[in-house]
Amino acid sequence: SNLIVAQSFLSMTQAIGTSWTFFTFGVISVVALIFVLVCVPETKGLPIEEIEKMLEHRAFHFKFWKKRSNTLNMNQTG
């Protein structure tokens, strides 16, 4: 993110002005903070097994991400 800011700051200040550049980076920072607070779980002091369970329940489950054992069991029963 620092590289992006360093590379884009001067061109943005010339294009939209200094205040709008700082406003834009501020909005991006607030959105990033909200994302971290909502989507990143606290794992301090938890054993790895509990962290795996927590992340497994929060993960997106698309068809191509299913484990092979689940698809094999589904084929055998159905």
Secondary-structure blueprint of this entry?
Elements (H helix, E strand, L loop, with lengths): L1 H15 L1 H22 L8 H11 L9 H10 L1
Helix pairs in contact: 1-2
Descriptive overview:
The chain is mostly helical and 78 residues long. The chain has four helices and no strands. α1 (2-16) runs antiparallel to α2 (18-39). The model has no long low-confidence stretch (mean pLDDT 81). It has helices at residues 2-16, 18-39, 48-58, 68-77. The longest helix has 22 residues, at 18-39. It is elongated and about 50 Å long.
What brief labels describe this structure?
transmembrane helix, 74% helix, 0% strand, MFS_trans_sf, transport, 78 residues, mainly alpha
